[in-house]
Amino acid sequence: MKLLTSSIINILKYTGKVVTFIRNTFLNLFFLLILIIVAYSFFESTQTPEVTVNTSSILRLDFYGNIVEERKILSSIEMILEDPFFSQANQQETLLQDILDVINKSTTDEQIEVIQLNLKKMDRAGLNQLETIGLALNNFKMAGKKVIAVEDNYSQSQYFLASFADTIIINPMGRVDIHGLGVYKLYFKDALDRLKINYNIFKVGTYKSAVEPFTRTSMSTQDQQQNKVWLSKLWQSYSERVTTNRNLNSFQLRRYTNNVAEELAAAKGNTAQLALNIGLVDKIMTHAEIINHLNQLSHTTGDTLAVTSTETYLEGITPSFTNAGTDKPGIGIIIAEGTILPGKQPTGLIGGESLATLINKARIDKDIKALVLRINSGGGSAFASEIIRQALLEFKKTGKPLVVSMGSVAASGGYWIAADADEIWAAPTTITGSIGIFAAIPTFEKSLGALGIYSDGVGTTPLAAGVNVTRELSQDLKDVIQQNVEYNYGQFIAIVAKGRNLDIASVEKLAEGRVYDGTTAQKIGLVDHLGSLAEAIQSTAKLAGLTDYKARYIQSPSTVKDQLLHYLTTSLPALSSSQDNHWLKAIKDIFSSQINQFITLDDPAGIYAICEIGPYLR
Q1: 208 a catalytic residue
Q2: Residue 478 catalytic?
Q3: Catalytic residue among 145, 208, 233, 400
Q4: What architecture does CATH give domain 330-439+512-617?
Q5: Which partner for 91 in 64, 242, 276, 578 could form a disulfide, CB atoms 3.0-4.6 Å apart?
C-alpha cells in the first residue's frame, strides 16, 4: 500500500512537471511570437511600400470612431489578429493628420480622380477638425477632381463634412439629422440628498460650472448665459459653412431645423425626399444604384469597384510628421490630448510627469530648434498642469520659441499650460478660457448613519481626522481647503496676466470660469492668432528663423507591455460595445461624460481646473 501511494505521488509529480513544462514552453513561444511580429512590424513601418492604385480609381476616405490628434497607442500587437472581426474593433479612432496626408497626397496623384467619403462609422469630432479636413477637400476639388458622399443616413457631424462634397447621395429610407447645438447635463443634487451624500464644494469663479451637477437640479443662469454665447457662435459657423457649401440661403436651413415637422408633412413623411427638397442632398439612390453610379465614376463595370481604402493608400505615403530625426533643423510637435492627470499616463490622457518628460526631451535635443504644443484638453489636475507649465518655462530658458496650437478645446487646465507660450493659435471654433478652480469632496457620514454605522475617535489636532469620507469635514479643514482653492485661483490669474502681458485687473474681469470661443478669445487677448496646426508650425519656423526645416513628433516610445495592455483593455472591450444599439450607446455616453472625469482625477491636493464642455459633434 505504501509503495502504491508512493507511485501515485511520483506519477502526480511527474505529471505536474510535464504540465508546467508545456505551459511555460507555450507562454515563452507565445511571447516570442509577439516579439517577432512587433519587431517585424516596426521594421516594416520604417519602409514606404509601393502601393498600386488603379487608373481612374476612387479613393475611399474612411473615418472610424472619434477623430483624434493622437491615437491612444499605435499598437503592433493588434497586427497579430488579422480577422476582420477584430480589425473592426481596433479601428476606434481616426488620426486627423492621417486623413490630411491622404487628401493632400491624392490631390496631386493623377491616378485618383474621385474621393468617396465613408462616414458611416465616424463618431465624435471637433468642428475645427472637420473644417480643416473640409478645406483640404476643397483643395482636392480645385485640382479638377470630385468628392462624393454616399451614406444611408447622415448625423450632424457627418453631414458637415459631407457638405464639402460635389455630390451627396442618400438612401430612399435615409435622413439628414441636423438639429442644432446644445449643452444638456445630468444634475444629481436630489439623488445625492436621497442617498445622504454630502458633497463639499470649494470653488472660485461664478461661471465655473463643472461642479453644478452635484449642487443643483438645473443649469444656473450664469452657465446658461455663457453657453448660449459660445453655442451661438459655433452654430453660426456650422450654418454658414453648410449653406455656403450647398449654395443655400440661411432661411432654407432654418426651415429644416426649426420647422421640421411642418416641412416633413409637406414631403408626406419621407425624410430622404425632404432632404432633397431643401437642397441638403443631390440624389436619392438604392445600394444597387449607388454601385452603378460609382462604376461610372471609376470607369469600371460589374460588382467590383476600383476603390482604394485609406488604410491601403496610407501605406504608400511618407507621413507629414514622424518621430524620426532628420538632417534638417527640427520643429518639435508634442500632442497634449485628454484629461490632465498627475504622474505618468498613457496616450489619450495627459500625465504631468509624462508630458514634462517629453518637453525636457525637446529642451535638450540640439536638433530641435522650436516647439509646438498642440493642446486638445479641457484641463484636469491643477497640480499636474503646473508641473507641465514649469517644464515649459525651463524649455523657454533655452531661447527656443514655444508656440501653442489649440485644438477643439484648450480650456481651464488646458489654458493654464498654454498661457506662457510665445504665441497662441486657436481655431475660430476652439473653446478656451474657463479660468477658474474648484475642489469637490464627497463624504458619506449621513449615508452610513442611515445604516447605523458611525465614525468616532480622538486626535491630537483639529485636523487629525484629515479628509475622512466617513466623517463630516471639520470647519477648520473646510477653511483650509477654501483658502488653498483661492490661492491657486490667484496663481492662475497671475500666470495668465504674466504670460499674456495683461494686468491682473483685466484678467480678473475675463476670468471667473468664463468660457470663450476662439474668435472672442483673440479679441480679448487670450489668443494671438486664428489658424490651423500647419499655420502655427509655419509661424514657429519664422520665430526660430528657419526656412529649411522638418517638423516631427516628440512621443514616448510604447513598449510591448504597453501595447499588449492597451489591446486587452481597449480593443477587446470594443468588441462588445460595437454591438450596442444606438440608444444604449447614447445613455452610456451621457453618464460617462459627466462621471468618469471625476472618478479618474487624482490631484494630490484635490484641486482641479476643468472645463467639462467641448465643441464636439456627433
Answers
A1: yes
A2: no
A3: 208
A4: Alpha-Beta Complex (3.90)
A5: 64
